[in-house]
Every structure is written in C-alpha cells, then in structure tokens.
Amino acid sequence: MVAGAVLGVGDTAGKLLLAQRDRPAAVAGLWELPGGKVEAGETDAQALHRELVEELGVQTEVGEPLTGQVILSAELVLVARWARIVDGEPVAHDHRALRWVDATELVRMADAGELVPADTGWVPELLAALTV
Ligand code: 9L3
Ligand code: MG
C-alpha cells in the first residue's frame, strides 16, 4: 500500500490534502492520505501516481518517501511518499470528501482522533513540511 502526502502549491501552499474514507465501517468518516494498493510490476511511486489519478483525477509528481512504514496486516505494508499536483483539481472519486488542511488544523484533527490510525505516525513529519 502506498499513500500520498500531497502538499499544496499556489492557493493551497502550506496545506496538505486529506481525504475522508467512505469504507470500511471501522474507518469510514476518518481522514487519510489518499492512496491504495501497489499492483504487480509497479513501483511504489508508479502505484501512487495511478491511485491519485483514479481517486482524485489529478496528475502528480511523486517525490521521496516519508520515514517509516506501517504494518497493516500479514501481507500489507503501508508507506507514504510526498507528491504535488501538476495538473487538475482534485475531486473525490473514491472518498466522501476532500480538504486542504494547514498545520493548525492537522494538529486539531490528530488530537481529535479524526485521522485514520495508520497515518498518525506521519503527523510530525507532515507538520514539519507545513510549517517551514
Ligand atoms: N490505509 C490506511 N491509510 C491510508 C491508505 C491509503 C490506506 N492512507 C489502509 C486502509 C485500508 C487499506 O489500507 O484498510 C486499504 O486501503 P484502500 O485500498 O481502500 O485505499
Ligand atoms: Mg484508496
């Protein structure tokens, strides 16, 4: 699994794109870094690019990995990479909603338990990128 830490540019500079999960029930309503499964023959970066086209309808430039990985299950490991939108406006094709959040809002959401548990370990690194 690979998730994208999509940082804004222009109007959304200093913000991070979060997506609200619609399923499964255990995490529906919580917010995540968008992304999905790496398919056979894909690199993590290729998979993230494809997932962000499918889920958000945008072209992205995928960058470096964030630190660490999250073991989701015996066969699923989640990693995250930085990304930025190079073409298109994000639309929620696979999520309930999308929002751009600044550092203050990200802290509030993390403290309020509004993020998917799998992604919370990345909050300090995300905050560092939002508060430069
Ligand atoms: N997951 C956790 N954090 C994320 C993403 C993209 C995914 N940022 C977990 C939630 C699901 C599983 O990975 O249990 C599958 O995700 P998807 O393929 O439904 O996006
Ligand atoms: Mg997904």
From TrEMBL:
The keyword Transcription does not apply. Transmembrane segments: none annotated. Keywords: DNA damage, DNA repair, DNA replication, Hydrolase, Magnesium, Metal-binding, Mutator protein. It holds the Pfam family NUDIX. It is an enzyme of class 3 (hydrolase). Residues 1-123 form the Nudix hydrolase domain. Its cofactor is Mg(2+). It catalyses: 8-oxo-dGTP + H2O = 8-oxo-dGMP + diphosphate + H(+). Its EC number is 3.6.1.55. One of its GO terms (biological process) is DNA replication. GO terms for molecular function: 8-oxo-7,8-dihydrodeoxyguanosine triphosphate pyrophosphatase activity; 8-oxo-7,8-dihydroguanosine triphosphate pyrophosphatase activity; 8-oxo-dGDP phosphatase activity; 8-oxo-GDP phosphatase activity; metal ion binding. The keyword Hydrolase applies. Belongs to the Nudix hydrolase family. This is 8-oxo-dGTP diphosphatase. It comes from Gordonia desulfuricans.
